[in-house]
Amino acid sequence: MSFVSKVKSSAKENRMQTAASKQVKLKLVHIDFWSAIKVGFTVTVGLGIATIAGFIFLYLVLSATGLFASMNGLLTSVFGAGIDLSLPRVISFGVGLAIFNCLVGTVLSGIGALVFNLIGRITGGLSIGFTNN
User: Whole-angstrom Cα distance, residue 38 to residue 109?
Assistant: First the structure.
């Protein structure tokens, strides 16, 4: 087999590989409002659970190091009254923050879908290219 035939067979293999991988272009022009709300709610609930677990973990680490006791002593010496940071108080603050984030995140996901639909109507959508390899 000569060098020229090797180059020709190599070029033929390259053409077959490029023909096998097709490129598809799609346009995303609409996001369903209720689907965006459901996905946004699910994501924010997961983040809320992670927030509560993070608050519990942070409280346990900081109380084991004695930071809360020294901070309470500092506040008592400066203001005359300390703050009692107990685990139920920290958990209730974490739950309140998680609920607030869940509500705001769900509303913002719906607003984001509406804004995308409005912009997609004006500009024609978002063009995305896919290839299979």
Answer: 9
Report which of residues 47 and 24 the model is more confident about: 47
Question: How many domains is the chain built from?
Answer: 1
CA triple 82-61-74, angle to 5 deg: 25
pLDDT tens, position by position, 75-94: 788 877 767 778 898 899 99
Q: Does residue 88 lie within any of the structural domains?
A: yes
Q: With b meaning 16 or more CB within 10 Å and e meaning fewer, what string describes 26-46?
A: eeeeebeeeebeeebbeebbe
Q: Decide if 37 contacts 106 (C-beta within 8 A).
A: yes
In a domain, 9, yes or no: no
Which domain does 89 fall in, by range? 23-131
For residue 23, the cross-strand partners are 131
How many Å is the maximal CA-CA distance in the chain?
A: 95
* 71 Cα distance to chain centroid: 34
Contacts of 121 (CB under 8 A, 6+ apart): 29
Task: Please give the span between the terminal C-alpha atoms of the chain, in angstroms, as a whole number.
Answer: 30
